[in-house]
Design goal:
alpha+beta, Beta-galactosidase, Chain A, domain 5, Glycosyltransferase, 3 domains, 31 strands, about 30% helix, disordered C terminus
Length: about 750
């Protein structure tokens, strides 16, 4: 097994059950399973989710990712006492998620209230090579005396999404002494799920089955001699379909047959097969650091783990929700997070998955066109929140104000239109990194033209120039403004890119070209002042400034909204997250290093970082400005969003974008990776306490591997690559070694050598 780090749960705590259920969740892109304990706790939220399986529970609800029937739960009775860690005494505890093979392991030595000691060990994984498979084992060892044990487990369809039921029970079956099966259908009859479970004990037992109140359960009673161990093995096959090509009976029969094949192999063989699949992921995507802080490597492995576990590589009709497949937060909806924060990892490690994520947007163009038309604009206006259909899924209203009894209207879907340009930016970035002309000639160009058409219709003529009014930029504390710099610059980039690729592929549309030329010539792009600061929007710089220090100290908790209303916050120089700084990050060729530094210095003190998306972007720009240690401080703050001490930071799921940012902040920050004018640039500069940084990279047709140690960069590449290294453009092939000091002159900072070559 690969020598990867493990993520540990330091000890049983009823207050952090849901945090660890999220951050230690298993998944394979098809399915996610929260890392809840087998035994039940009132505060523990169980969860199993399938990518793309959404349903609307009622007329006043929105589509949400369906929480499936639970298969993890096991009622454990030891000598007449229910096993619970809220009673008795925990004598020893170990719980960890092994990143190398994806196995979640727990070992507990427990003294019951009656005084007897038992060792319970559980293991679980979600298979990476057989996507519908979840495998579990529970072992029980009585330490002090022989024990009488009763176990109850099966398929529990009383599970809901915080009280909302999405599935109708269609059938329940038992086959011989080991197999159970439940068939379920969404209430709109659009999708069907068949869950098949195999349960086998390593000893003889008295067993029977019950099917009652949406639960199908296997009951097993047995005895264990002192010191012996009995193991329950449970395998579950979760089959999902939208089409109805087969009858329900045939679909269920096929699912059971798949499970029986797995049962013959057994837990150990299934785990090895899944571990082999994980091995390829780590070879293609693992970032390694030699750091005096062990948490740094754990965070990087955590990021790659979840970036793999949350991404539906199998299905281009699905994308990545803001909580991945780890919880019900944001109802499983897809935001701009996917293109801006999550796609870069796949783009530079598994570009075919980046392509699939962009095809999700292309396949959902009809919904984007409909939204644009409904609002009186041409082209495609992508929903701020989307699910399976491509329709707008953002709730129209927020929660009811308990003082006024009224609901506050949600503005994001109405004005946060930068998502249109974000998708276009990602399309261009994909082509730059892959030169995939087949995609760009068809899906990519269609996306660029539809989004560009939207911006050309969205702009307003004002005093001889074009402006974009009534928008919300990335900074969601500033609503309904004119000429948000981020939005205007990205819209310009969107239209310019459409023109560029129309010319490349000889696509001639005279009217489009004329409108685009007019738009590019006349769109107002907010200009930097003498110090290099770009105004966030037309009104921002005229607003008053207040001391934000105590709110910044509690970043992420939105404590400023306890003291000020949203309307009051909107009228002050207060940012929720990076906005102009985000613009500097995405379009590095448009701004000088001096302008980036000026905007960072001006806007960061005005930014509370109440969004999990904020600090990582500040960290990347800080690194590009030469402040590596400052960038590292931002990076560690970003790690703490999920992996910090807050027991409730991730109760409803991990912060998916923050995991992408962990990877990006190292590769695009400390390794200095940028795409500038379509070409690859690197300028590694790592924190002082990192002795070494190693990472793989895909660029066009080449597989590359970089090692930076003692200011020396070793590059291994499968094909010749042209790149700009510390400011000098060169060709690298095979294995080459470059010394940083040879590239930087004491005065000018210009490149001076070609580097050295190793055979």
């Amino acid at each position: 097994m690969l020598n990867l780090s493990v993520l540990t749960d330091p000890g049983f705590c009823p207050h952090s059950l849901n945090k660890y259920a999220s951050i230690m969740a298993g998944g394979n892109g098809y399915m996610g399973v929260r890392a809840t304990h087998e035994e039940d706790y009132t505060r523990q939220t169980r969860g199993m989710y399938l990518a793309g399986l959404y349903h609307r529970a009622g007329c006043n609800e929105t589509n949400e990712l369906v929480n499936l029937p639970d298969v993890v739960g096991i009622d454990i009775e030891l000598d007449g006492e229910n096993f619970t860690l809220l009673a008795g005494e925990i004598l020893s505890w170990q719980r960890e998620l092994a990143f190398a093979n994806g196995e979640l392991r727990r070992s507990v030595l427990w003294r019951s209230p009656g005084g007897k000691r038992y060792r319970l060990e559980s293991r679980r994984f979600v298979s990476l090579d057989q996507l519908p498979l979840v495998a579990m084992q529970l072992s029980i060892t009585p330490v002090d005396d022989a024990s009488q044990v009763v176990l109850k487990t099966g398929i529990d369809a009383t599970q809901t999404n915080t009280g909302r039921q999405h599935l109708d029970e269609m059938s329940v079956r038992v086959f011989d002494q080991h197999y159970l099966q439940g068939g379920y259908e969404t209430q709109d009859h659009a999708a069907e799920v068949v869950m098949s479970a195999y349960c086998r004990l390593s000893t003889e037992s008295d067993s029977f089955f019950t099917a009652k109140n949406r639960r199908i359960t296997a009951h097993q009673a047995f005895s264990i001699p002192q010191g012996d161990t009995v193991t329950l093995e449970k395998l579950v096959w979760v089959a999902h379909r939208r089409d109805k090509a087969l009858s329900q009976e045939a679909f269920a029969r096929n699912a059971l047959a798949e499970l029986k094949v797995c049962a013959v192999k057994g837990y150990a063989a299934l785990l090895k097969s899944s571990a082999d699949a994980w091995g390829k992921i780590w070879r293609d995507g693992r970032v390694e650091v030699a750091s005096t802080e062990p948490q740094d490597q754990i965070a990087l492995d955590y990021a790659v783990w979840h970036l793999t576990a949350m991404t539906p590589a199998h299905d281009e009709r699905s994308s990545i929700g803001a909580k991945g497949l780890t919880g019900e937060g944001y109802k499983g909806h897809v935001f701009w997070d996917t293109e801006i924060f999550l796609l870069p990892f796949h783009l530079f490690t598994r570009p075919q998955i980046a392509r699939s994520l962009l095809r999700y947007r292309w396949l959902n163009l009809p919904g984007a066109r409909e939204k644009a038309r409904r609002n009186g604009w041409p082209g495609a206006l992508f929903p701020w929140e989307s699910a399976a259909s491509g329709q707008e899924e953002t709730p129209e209203f927020a929660a009811i104000n308990i003082r006024t009894g009224t609901r506050q209207k949600v503005a994001s879907a109405l004005a946060e239109h930068h998502i249109v340009a974000d998708i276009a930016w990602a399309v261009v970035a994909y082509w730059q990194a892959t030169h995939d002309d087949d995609f760009m000639r068809n899906e990519g160009l269609k996306l660029l033209m539809e989004t560009a058409t939207f911006w050309m219709g969205r702009a307003t003529e004002v005093n001889g120039r074009l402006e974009i009014h009534n928008v919300i930029g990335p900074d969601e504390y500033t609503e309904h403004v004119n000429n948000n710099a981020y939005t205007n610059y990205l819209a310009w980039h969107n239209v310019a890119s459409a023109c560029q690729f129309m010319a490349r592929f000889k696509r001639e549309e005279r009217r489009f070209t004329e409108n685009a030329s007019r738009f590019l010539e006349r769109l107002w792009l907010p200009e930097a002042d003498a110090d290099g600061v770009i105004p966030q929007d037309d009104s921002f710089l005229a607003k008053p400034v207040i001391d934000l220090s105590r709110y910044k100290a509690q970043a992420g908790k939105q404590t400023i909204l306890l003291d000020y209303s949203r309307a009051e916050v909107n009228e002050m120089q207060i940012l929720k997250q990076a906005d102009v700084v985000m613009l500097n990050y995405l379009l590095p060729e448009r701004f000088t290093p001096q302008q980036c530094a000026a905007n960072l210095a001006f806007y960061e003190p005005r930014t509370i970082h109440d969004s999990s998306l904020s600090k990582a972007i500040h960290g990347i720009v800080t690194a590009r400005c030469g402040d590596t240690e400052g960038a590292y401080a931002f990076w560690r703050d970003g790690i703490a969003i999920d992996l910090g001490d807050d027991p409730h930071s991730s109760d409803d799921g991990i912060h998916a974008a923050a995991t992408g940012a962990i990877w990006s902040a190292v590769i695009q920050g400390f390794a200095g990776l940028q795409i500038v004018e379509g070409e690859l640039h690197l300028a590694p500069r790592i924190p002082a306490h990192w002795q070494k940084l190693t990472f793989p990279l895909r660029w066009r047709n080449a597989r590359m591997h970089f090692t930076f140690e003692n200011a020396v960069l070793t590059i291994e590449t499968s094909a010749p690559v042209t790149l700009t290294l510390w400011g000098k453009t060169l060709m690298t092939s095979g294995r080459q070694v470059w010394s940083q000091k040879d590239f930087i002159t004491p005065d000018a900072g210009t490149a001076t050598t070609e580097g050295s070559h190793d055979a």
